Amino acid sequence: MANAIPEKIRMNTTLLEHLAEVAKDAALLKGVLMRIQETPNSSELVTYAPFTLFPTPVPEAVFSQALALQTHFNTLVDKISQDAEFLQDALASTIEVDDFTARLFKIHQQIVKEGTSQSVVCGLNRSDYMLDQAEDGSSSLKQIEINTIAASFGGLSSCTPDVHRHILQVAGQLEQSERILDNNPAAGLARAVAKAWELYGSEKAVIMFLVEEGQRNIFDHRYVEKELWNRNIATMRRRFDDVSKTGSLDQDKRLFVDGQEVAVVYFRNGYMPQNYNSEKDWDARLMMERSLAVKCPDISTHLVGTKKVQQVLATPGVLEKFFPHQPQVVEQIRATFAGLYTLDMGPEGDQTVAMALAAPERFVLKPQREGGGNNFYGSEMCEVLQEVKDGTERTAYILMDKIHPAPVQNVLLRRDAPLQISTCLSELGVFGTYVRKGQDMVLNECVGHLLRTKSSEHSDGGVASGVAVLDNPLLF
Ligand code: ADP
Ligand code: MG
Ligand code: MG
């Protein structure tokens, strides 16, 4: 099995313990921070965000492939977001049974009916991949999903390269240390948000981060905020409840919150059912969507990130519709698609059910949810499928081929966890940003990457859900 731990250190527990201490201090020093679970809304007590002791080897070719694809995925997301008919068709069966997606879709429909008041759109995406390992040891890039709302860790991943550089230096691995890539998604995200602010065209208007109730991961946001303040653009942080209590639209649909005009709403919340505590929160979302403020993302772009849209995109002919004159782009994108299968009512969906029940270890069952920890695997997947397979409830899910990345030995550093070597799996994210004004793509960039690594015991879950930790690729 591949090993991220340098050979001479593997058996040396004393040295590993020493490096772990050095690593935690380096993380604190470099600002790889999180508030503690007990007090998510106070910065009195903070700790390091969980991370790997060593960077994980990633093949250079596959890494470059992922970066090269990002602007195409940006274009794809943006095109779909403007195609109301496609979204309607793709999500029709899902919204009949999934209340959350249905509520989002209702807002989308209302905006389509009323017409958007703002022609500027800002997308901040993160396309996530795993490297599927073939029998011959080669690996191919397979997309897990695209996150089109609240994609996180662009801030903290801007600080982790220096931490790994330092650890490798102390471990006597100078050559490796120098090979750690620079990364600064925070700057790229801010560049897009700043462009959206500029196009809104009011010096005194602010950028509002729409944030969660519990804000453990605030430092990740703070990096982007700081980049904006560096440009003399004011930011503020508000929750749904604040918007609901102090927000309003004037007759030109300008959004005011707490007396301040909002040029851009950057959603770092609003992607899970539990983010909406009451009807008032839903009303606040609708008000923001209706407003003249630029939304990152707007409601239609949010919906493009659903797993159902991902599955529909993988059906023959669909990518061609969005890139009619670019067969090479279609080919490049399609090459990263794993098998994705519909559970819609009908013979095709029936076939999906039968296939999954016959070989559960080959698949993942996914509902339309975000944030990690929502998917079903193995025997649990079978139980869920047995329950829903004969009725329309099954259309709330899609089925996907399970990706098998090569396991790598590493040490996961997490507050209060014992030091141990774990068998790990990694997921590579690529950040993309774009700003469009009317039909004019003003900016379309790939702005950095994120490597997350988790113990292979867990089949699901991200950093925020306490399973994965931050990492860096070491290209080979
Ligand atoms: P979420 O939007 O909740 O992050 P994901 O589709 O990213 O949903 O799934 C969550 C996690 O489950 C991923 O980070 C990955 O670890 C695992 N996972 C998802 N899809 C697959 C797959 N096809 N094969 C293997 N693991 C998967
Ligand atoms: Mg997601
Ligand atoms: Mg994910």
TrEMBL record:
Function according to Swiss-Prot or TrEMBL: Catalyzes the production of glutathione from gamma-glutamylcysteine and glycine in an ATP-dependent manner. Glutathione (gamma-glutamylcysteinylglycine, GSH) is the most abundant intracellular thiol in living aerobic cells and is required for numerous processes including the protection of cells against oxidative damage, amino acid transport, the detoxification of foreign compounds, the maintenance of protein sulfhydryl groups in a reduced state and acts as a cofactor for a number of enzymes. Participates in ophthalmate biosynthesis in hepatocytes.
Name of this protein: Glutathione synthetase
Source species, domain of life: Eukaryota
Pathway terms, separated by semicolons: Sulfur metabolism; glutathione biosynthesis; glutathione from L-cysteine and L-glutamate: step 2/2
Residues annotated to bind Mg(2+): 145, 147, 370
Binding site residues for substrate: 126, 149-152, 215-217, 268-271, 463-464
Residues annotated to bind ATP: 145, 307, 366-375, 377, 400-403, 427, 452, 454, 460
